[in-house]
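dumping this here before i forget
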Amino acid sequence: MSQLRRCSVKIKTVNEQLLKQTMESIAKFLATHFGNVRVTDKVGDFYARDIRGVVTGIVADSIRGFGIAVQDGKPIIVGDDYMQELTIQKFTNMFENFYTATCMQQALQAMGYQVNATLLPKMEIAVRGVRGAGYGT
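structure:
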């Protein structure tokens, strides 16, 4: 049974380049739990029907896929989590955290900071920016 869902996220504006960078980070993270995770612009439902309008998304051997579509300038998550270990709610939380961290990293780097990010329990991400003597510019 296909359970295609569309979920809004707290993010109100979209930058497609940041969406793609975020999805690459999520794919790297999920690769430790699921095999063959890849970034794509095509995700499907339970019946292998393509979900249209996806800007970027992820699929894996055991994940049919979750994607990001843009509706009225805002990102929405699309996917079918029927009989999957990764639910759309888990993916939504992961996406919001990773996207926010990616935005923060880019902003800090633009201001001349050296940046690193650490994934904490409960899918929280700590972003640290350092600038000063001994840290480059």
